[in-house]
Give the backbone structure.
Amino acid sequence: MKKKLIWIIPLAVIIVAVTSVVIYINIYYHADSTALAALVSDDKVTVTETDYGWFFDGPSDDSALIFYPGGKVEETSYAPLLHRLAGEGIDVCLVKMPVRLAFLGINMADSIIGMYDYDHWYIAGHSLGGVAASYYVSDNPGRIEGLILLASYSTKKIPESVKTVLIYGSEDKVLDLGKYNDNRSNIALCIGEVIIEGGNHAGFGNYGKQDGDGQASISAEEQQTRTVEMIMQYMVSSGK
């Protein structure tokens, strides 16, 4: 009987651990119908599913942006924002992260950059995806011209050659403003810091209300439109 218990107890622990991991992986914020509709090509932007995620091919032939999604958020939730951005003049590579955690795919930008022939490369990320994107920029000086952090911050020093734009909503209750301010000095060249009045944490994507977030007083569409305007104004225009 004791010999059986020696085997049964570890097996039970393993089963519980595996089950917990499976449950964790499958709990995430899902893209809504608006996001799925933005995955359809139109007369300005061709949307293609790729090995790394999704490619939004607009009128640009020299500038592209790599986008790292927020933690536990379905990557396609950001399709409306990125479709609109591609239509304004910067093609976008949306990355599908392993188990929807950008820290497990920090260096995915490497292979993406090698796939295309653009003169200007930018990288952006939302929340945890922004922190991961900043890691990539810090560890790969010279590969990226600009960094866009949406409701996020960098815990590592960003090279002085990298233009950085910081954007978050006034009603964001998920972003830790204490850490945001503590890490502000890591940004050597901040060319724009924007607080979108009425915006919140989840408004950069289309995946519904996020736990602990504030109530937005503007629509996700309006928040994303404002975000596109700021990216094009501060980042892309200054790079040409």
Q: What stands out?
A: The first strand starts at residue 46 and ends at 49.
